[in-house]
Amino acid sequence: MTRIVFRIILSLVLSLHVGDIAGQSNYMVVTSSDGRNVSFRMSDIDSVWFSDDDKYDSDDDVLKILAIGNSFTEDGTEYLSSILNNAGIPTDKLIVCRYILGGSSLKTWSDLADNNGTAKTYVMFGSDKPYEYHQSYIIQDVMEYDWDIVVLQQLSGSYYDLTTYEPYLSNMMSYVRRHVKGYPRLAWQMTWSRSSSAGAGDIYGLTGWENNVTATKYLMENYGFDILIPSGTAMQNMRLTSECDSAEFTRDGQHAGYGVGRYLVAMTWYASLIAPYFNKNIYDINCLYEVKDYEKSWSTNETKDVDENNLPLIKDCVNKAILSPFKLNTTN
Q1: pLDDT digits 0-9 by tens, 132-144
Q2: Residue 204: strand, helix, or coil
Q3: For the chain, first and last CA: distance in Å?
């Protein structure tokens, strides 16, 4: 597919158009959720969505997403169905499936592909169930479905270290393109740094986020990914809000916290992968989330419900991460 950048589709705005402003041709006007019109130079916006068409290349009108990864992939998809249901996404028009190995890195998945190993599938959304929930499948059998998007990521503790990526990332990208029917778009999840209270160094807090930004920029510029899911920046934006405590929206110092943490990451997945396809707006989402008792028992840190007070903050932090995935944006 030829990727000609002439349009930016953003799920977080009510309307958008590209045109001439004061004689300039590379500007766009965004109408924000509060009705303000703001003009941006397109070159200044690190959008997650660069496309030469309105839809994914699909043989039907069903969007099919496969997420490959570990517990951070689980964090991004576990609450996703609640958001999708609230958004009114039809279950016969979307399939979201995750293919999971706990603690897996790019090397783990590359080795699995080389040896045709197995991992477990979890269909998180969709009335069509190409695979059983929580069952083991050989990787080639999973790949040979006609996925429109395949999501990859690196192990969070190794994310910043580009020496851990090769030859494994190239091998996985090649494997996906050889086995998935058609030409799937490749998406990359930028993971979040561990909480500052959990430690210091290359993977914690602000320093960890900065290191992850450096790695993400390199990947997006050199590997041909079509879509970025800026979960790490959305999380770091949320850590700048008045809602943040010492846990920094983690349940154990690294994984997304039950309640706000997982909801925030799921909203980032929705805004990056799904809302643009269905012409939806994240500001229309109004579902809340009360942390379950079993989640509280599993969490080392105190949990936070998604309520009417922090939901607007969550959407704003995702909004800003979509517009500027490599910059932090303070909010209230």
Answers
A1: 999 999 999 999 9
A2: strand
A3: 42
Query: DSSP readout, 77-111?
Result: HTTHHHHHHHHT--TTSEEEEEEE-TT--HHHHHH
Q: How confident is the model at residue 40 (pLDDT cuts 50, 70, 90)?
A: very low
DSSP secondary structure string for all residues of 286-321: ---BPPPHHHHHH-SSPPB-B-TTTHHHHHHHHHHH
Cα–Cα distance, 154 to 165 (Å, whole number): 8
Query: 306 vs 81, 290, 312, 313, CA distance in Å?
Result: 15, 6, 10, 10
State the residue for tokens 């980032």: 268
State the Cα–Cα distance between residues 8 and 42, nearest whole angstrom: 8
The Cα–Cα gap between 330 and 317 comes to 8
Rounded distance between C-alpha atoms, residue 253 and residue 194, angstroms: 6
102-150 residue pLDDT tens: 999 999 999 999 999 999 999 999 999 999 999 999 999 999 999 999 9
Residue 36 CA to chain centroid, in angstroms?
A: 27
The alpha carbon dihedral of 304, 308, 311, 313 has a sign of negative
Residue 172, φ and ψ in degrees, nearest 5 = -70, -40
Is 47 in contact with 10 (CB distance < 8 Å)?
yes
Strand bridging mode 37-41 / 24-31: antiparallel
- Sign of the Cα pseudo-torsion (71, 310, 45, 89, in order): positive
